[in-house]
């Protein structure tokens, strides 16, 4: 199993059902030294507003989110789902868990 830290769209039960045909269960965690930045992505029907994690030097900048256990095949589905505005990297969360996260590309 893989660990995925989600702070945005992937926490949506509706999105999870579309991607995985199931709702994920996870635990709350935090990513330190990062903050959320607004991001506009062009979609089929125009521009849409999202957020993206960006590194900071300030340890008081936490991002709150959920850590999910997912299969490698589910992780591959997310790679396709995320736009090229994001890249997947491994991070160590506040709990000490090492997880994948999508950050600014």
UniProtKB/TrEMBL annotation:
Keywords: Transferase. It holds the Pfam family GGACT. Residues 4-103 form the Gamma-glutamylcyclotransferase AIG2-like domain. The keyword Transferase applies. GO terms for molecular function: transferase activity. Coiled coil: none annotated. CDD domains: GGCT_like (cd06661). The keyword Kinase does not apply. This is Uncharacterized conserved protein YtfP, gamma-glutamylcyclotransferase (GGCT)/AIG2-like family. It comes from Flavobacterium saccharophilum.
């Amino acid at each position: 199993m893989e660990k995925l830290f989600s702070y945005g769209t992937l926490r949506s039960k509706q999105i999870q059902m579309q991607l995985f045909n199931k709702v994920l269960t996870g635990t709350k965690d935090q990513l330190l030294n990062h903050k959320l930045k607004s991001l506009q992505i062009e979609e089929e029907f125009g521009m849409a507003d999202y957020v993206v994690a960006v590194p900071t030097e300030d340890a008081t900048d936490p991002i709150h989110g959920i850590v999910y256990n997912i299969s490698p095949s589910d992780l591959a589905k997310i790679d396709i789902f995320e736009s090229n505005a994001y890249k997947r990297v491994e991070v160590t969360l506040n709990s000490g868990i090492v997880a994948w996260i999508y950050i600014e590309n």
